Amino acid sequence: LLRHLLLKLRASGPLTVAEYMREALTNPGQGYYTRRGGVGESGDFVTSPEMSQVFGELIGIWYISEWMAAGKPKAFQLVELGPGRGSLTDDILRVFTQLASLLSKCDISIHLVEVSPKLSEIQAQMLTGGKVQSSPRDDTVYMKGISKTGIPISWYRDIQDVPQGYSFYLAHEFFDALPIHKFQRTEKGWREVLVDEDPEVPDQLRFVLAPSSTPATQNFIQPEETREHVEVCPEAGVLIQRLAHRLEKDGGAALIADYGHDGTKTDTFRGFQNHKPHDVLKAPGTADLTADVDFSYLRKMTQGRTATLGPIKQREFLKNMGIDLRLQVLLQNSRDTATQEQLRHSYDMLMNPQKMGDCFHFFALLPHHRLTHPDQKDNLQPRAPLVPVAGFSELTLK
Ligand code: SAH
């Protein structure tokens, strides 16, 4: 991949950080996700659903709670973006099975958006036991199967190919993998950061500043910006617009969980290999590259089509979802001390402010009518109170 990038640079000049990140992560032959996939204990980074079943269970309950608040529609699609090893959907499906009596009349289907052939194979194994049909010549649905619990699953490369309809969207540690542009404030104004060949060291890359303003500088930097360095992820913006359009038209909800900030951080672009920090410009394609999600940008890109909730810290969201109760039940039901120890350890990883509790955030998109009554000026009838959205406010037990 480095050779390919050097040839490209020599032919047409420096790359934007976004082009570099896209190549490093999802180049069809040599990209990090396409080739390695890296998620899990033996990979380069471990995510919350890989750590604990409770994480996915509580998210499953969040969707059921939204489904009930919407008046139990007859059908829904669960659409996961970047499902990794498939553990999160697997845990959610277990909850759906446990609550089968509630969901029995509902027609549920699963839709996974995944670019990595390697990870989609792992997902198929996890969710269906490997019983899938591939359709390599079909551009839209490239694989189909039935979950171990009897629910149809389809795989796509792009969200645009997922059928429209009432849907619950899920993106966990997905947005941080989308390519970012980087900008630096200089005495001459904003300049885009680019990736170029280092003239001093053979076959090594380095960051340079564009000599003049680029179209991206003009389009992505807000006039009121006060930071010295800014990262912008236009692909995330386009995706949020698509989700907001779909939710406005068909209803449902989107839950986005990732590490991020609300438009305050500057340089967050970093790499991981083997659970250790990795120079982002070294050996592209061999390490996970990531940047914090700017939730304020996501909120702006909904363009008011949906309401948004959050970002709220992971430990607050999970607490509001009842993680403490769930832990107690699992501890009571586990027979050996090793299992109890493992349950406590994974709870600590998810909730401890120094671990994943504070840096990961939950953010939701919901149709406006979910949070506010439509304006009914002529109707003076008292309105039924709106059901609070689980996870985003304190849990009250009745
Ligand atoms: N959600 C999982 C995995 C996170 S890793 C978890 O929390 O464990 C990021 C995931 O997004 C991987 O499955 C990766 O292959 C996928 N991915 C990255 N870029 C993508 C893109 N542009 N389109 C679709 N999937 C992508």
Describe this structure in words.
This protein is an alpha/beta fold. The chain has 2 domains: 1-24 and 181-230, no CATH class; 31-178 and 234-369, Rossmann fold, CATH 3.40.50. The chain is 37% helix and 24% strand. The protein has 16 helices and 18 strands. The protein has helices at residues 2-12, 17-26, 32-35, 48-51, 53-69, 87-98, 100-103, 117-128, 215-220, 234-250, 295-301, 314-320, 323-333, 337-351, 353-357, 368-371, and strands spanning 15-16, 75-81, 107-113, 132-134, 141-146, 152-156, 167-172, 181-186, 189-197, 205-209, 229-232, 252-261, 270-273, 276-278, 288-290, 293-294, 307-313, 360-366. The strands form 3 sheets. Strands 2, 3, 4, 5, 6, 7, 12, 16, 17 and 18 form a 10-stranded mixed sheet that branches. β5 and β6 form a beta hairpin. α13 packs antiparallel against α14. The longest helix has 17 residues, at 53-69. The mean pLDDT is 94. Bound molecules: S-adenosyl-L-homocysteine. Residues 25-26, 33, 39, 47, 49-50, 82-84, 88, 113-116, 119, 172-174, 177 line the site of S-adenosyl-L-homocysteine. The site of S-adenosyl-L-homocysteine has 20 residues, from α2 and α4. Pfam families: Methyltransf_28. One of its GO terms (biological process) is methylation. One of its GO terms (molecular function) is protein-arginine omega-N symmetric methyltransferase activity.
